[in-house]
Amino acid sequence: MINSDIIRGHLESVILKLIIEQDRYGYEISNCITERTDSKFNIKEATLYSVVGRLEKKELIESYMGAKTHGGKRRYYRITPLGKAYYREKLKEWKELKVLLETLLEAK
Amino acid sequence: MKRINNFVKNTFKDVPKDKRDEIIASVSEKLIEKVEDLIESGYELDDAINKTVVEFGTMEDYLLDESKKLKKLKRKKTIAHYRNDLLFSVFGSLITIGILIFINLYFLQGTLWFVVPSIAILWWPLVLLYRLWNKKESKKGEKDE
Fold it and tell me: Which of A27, A93, B121, B141 is the most exposed place for a label (fewest CB within 10 A)?
């Protein structure tokens, strides 16, 4: 299991990416992360929800109440144009970082 | 769902008042969504709630960097509290010793016996002074780390 401290800095990008793919609600995001990583990276939901809240405050995502198939309502999040731009920046940053770390850590 | 609400309220009870209600409302909503989701996928209500509560984490997980600030604030409050205690004990012992001196000099002259109970009473502010210094010292120690 990966130490969540390392990924924490990139959590914003991860969440943005998931919301860009389609509108999602809180638990769906956490579920998605668990599924895609084969439970190797199990993020604490407390952390996840706080990041989602922060993204919403920064207006990178916005929420709306969506209908659910079985009565009840869910708060869905969708990406804003600002969020998309932010994500593209972060992605570029990540790619640079990846190359950088590869040269540094795997140099022979 | 009352259990979820109570759990969230309890988890975030130490958050400063101005943010608390907002956090509680938003987190409760998400957790209730999760419980409903789990029930849909076949969980019993109790199991779903238990699973949600166990997997949520702690207030520190939620506040990340802010939890440090929160601790500092709490610490300041404790020290202010200790200082109040000390002030109270100083005044309390001064008044008591004053009365002892008065009784000694006015009614029962001859020996200066008031010194003996005064020493005992002085332990009260001394203990509180020690406690305050101790707390301040441990704060310094943490800063050095």
Answer: B141
Asked if B111 has any chain A CB less than 8 Å from its own CB, the reply is no
Q: Is B61 part of the contact surface with chain A (CB cutoff 8 Å)? A: yes
Cβ within 8 Å, pair B36-A72: yes
Per-residue pLDDT of A56-94, as tens digits, reads: 888 999 988 887 655 567 888 999 999 999 999 999 999
What's the one-letter identity of residue B109?
Q
| CB spacing of A26 vs B33 below 8 angstroms | yes
Q: Are A77 and A70 in contact (CB under 8 A)?
A: no
| A51/chain B closest Cα distance in angstroms | 8
Q: Which of A8, A44, A74 is facing B57, going by the closest CB pair?
A: A44
Closest by alpha carbon to B90, among B37, B59, B116, B126? B126
Q: Are A24 and A58 in contact (CB under 8 A)?
A: no
pTM: 0.66
Rg from Cα positions in chain B: 26
Residue type, A31: N
Rounded distance, CA A79 to CA A95, Å? 22
